[in-house]
Amino acid sequence: MAQESYKNETDETECQVPEKPILCANNCGFFGSSSNNNLCSKCFRDLFMHQQQQWQQQQELQQPKLAQKAPTSLASISAQPEPAKLEAGEPSETVVRPATNRCLACNRRVGLNGFRCRCGGTFCGSHRYSESHGCDFDYRGAGREGIAKANPIVKAEKVEKI
Q: Mean pLDDT of successive 10-residue segments in the chain (162 residues)?
């Protein structure tokens, strides 16, 4: 008797597996799943990609198009570029060098172990310090600017006496 009641309890609590697997809604011959809207994985992926492409096309249509460039003739373009004008108050732009895998001081290959300096160069282990490669970066000025940005000066208004 105890075995029969135990058997009935376990039968009631077991998960019920559907008798028939669900075929794909597109009738492709594969089995679908309820999590994929009764579609097989291939049909669901195709449907998802199609919906994503439609969404991207709608976004492109909604965004305003940029003005097209007017055609320029070769006669209007000057042959010599004008020199850039730098005023005394403006700081010059920093020189951007392409990423290299050689030391700028001794031209030795550094590979993955190269050390990047604030001056923009890559150096080997023996030239990685600013004293050894003659670095022209102003560390003191950069430190002062960093401290000034981190700790702005706050001046309170004077309190009027009664």
A: 58 60 86 86 90 88 63 51 51 59 90 87 89 88 93 86 83
All residues at 6 or more sequence positions from 106 whose CB lies less than 8 Å from its CB, including other chains: 124, 126, 127
Domain ranges of the chain: 19-57, 111-150
Domain 111-150 fold:
Zf-an1 domain (4.10.1110)
The domain 19-57: what is its CATH number? 1.20.5.4770
| pTM for the predicted model, two decimal places | 0.33
Q: How far apart are the first and last CA of the chain?
A: 98
Residues in CB range of 119: below 8 A, 6 or more apart: 130, 135, 136, 137
